C-alpha cells in the first residue's frame, strides 16, 4: 500500500512538472514568434513594448489586490526614495533590454535572435564577476569561451545575417547582463520586500515605461502619430484588431513571468534551466520549419557549442548548490540566457521559519 501511494505521488509530480514546463514553453516560445509576427505588419516595436508594460502593470496590480484580499496581508509599497534610488537603475536597464530585443525583430530572423539572445549569460557572468556575485574560476572561463565561440560560429557566413539587427540584440544581451545583475542585487535586499515576482513586476513597469518613452519619442513618435493604424485610423475594425494584437502580447508577457514562477516554485531552478535549454532548441527547429529560417551546419555546430557552455554552467551550479550547507542562497546567477531572479516565497505566518528559497527565470518579459 505504501509503495503504491509512493508511485502515485511520483507520477502525479511528474505529470504536474511536465504540465508546468509545457505551459512555460507555450508562453516563452509563443511570445518570441508573436513578436516576429507582429513586427512584420506593425513597425513600431517600442510602442508595442510600452503597451505590453502597461498591460503587465495592470495585471500585476490586479494580482496584488486579489492576493491581499484573500490573505488579508498588505503588499509591500516602496517609498519614493527607495523607489527612485534602488529600483530606477534596474527598471531602466530592463526597459532597454526588452525594447532593443523587440526592435531587433524588424531586421533579423527568429533563429538568429534566439542564438544571439542566448549569449546573454556571457555578459551576465562578466558583470557577476565585476560586482563580485561570482568568483573567478577556470570553469567559468571555459563557459565564457564556449558561449563566445558558439556565437561566432553561428553568425559566421550566415545567409540571413543582418548587421543592424544583430547589433540591436547583442546590445540587448549586453544590457541584459547589467539588468539581471542589478535585479539580483535588488531582490537580495530583504528590507525592500520585493522577493515576490508580482511585487517586482508591479514596481518595475512604471519606471520601465518612462525609461523607454524618450527612445520611443525620438525614433517612432512622429511616424506613429501619422500612422493610419493608430492615431490617424480610418478603419475602426483595423484599429481594434491592432489594439487586440498588442493586448495579446501583454498577456503573453505577463503569463511568461507567472508560468516561470509556478514552475520554479513547484520544482527547482535546475528544472527551469534545463527546460530553458531545450526551449532554445525547440524555438530554432520551429523557426526553420515554420518560417523557413536558413541554418547551416556550421551554424548548428555553433549553437551546439553555445548550449554546451550553458549546460556546463547548469551542471556546475547544480554541483555547487548540492555541496552548499545551510539555507543561505547561492551567489551564482542563473544559467538560462535570460537569467534567474532570486526569490524567497514567504509562507503563512506560522511557517515563517520554513521559507522556500527559489529562483525565478525571467524571459526578458518579451
Automatic annotation (TrEMBL):
TM helices/strands, residue ranges: 12-34, 46-67, 112-131, 138-156, 168-187, 207-226, 238-258, 297-316
Domain Sugar phosphate transporter: 19-312
UniProt entry tagged with the keyword DNA-binding: no
The keyword Membrane is assigned to this record: yes
GO cellular component, one term: endoplasmic reticulum-Golgi intermediate compartment
Residue segments, region Disordered: 344-366
Biased segments, Acidic residues type: 348-358
Location within or outside the cell: Membrane
Topology class, membrane: Multi-pass membrane protein
GO biological process, one term: negative regulation of gene expression
InterPro entries: EmrE-like, Sugar_P_trans_dom, TPT_transporter
Key words of the record: Membrane, Transmembrane, Transmembrane helix
Function according to Swiss-Prot or TrEMBL: Putative transporter.
Record PANTHER family: SOLUTE CARRIER FAMILY 35 (PTHR11132)
Family: Belongs to the TPT transporter family. SLC35E subfamily.
Protein's UniProt name: Solute carrier family 35 member C2
Species per Swiss-Prot/TrEMBL record: Panthera leo
Taxonomy of the source species: Eukaryota, Metazoa, Chordata, Craniata, Vertebrata
Gene assigned in the entry: SLC35C2
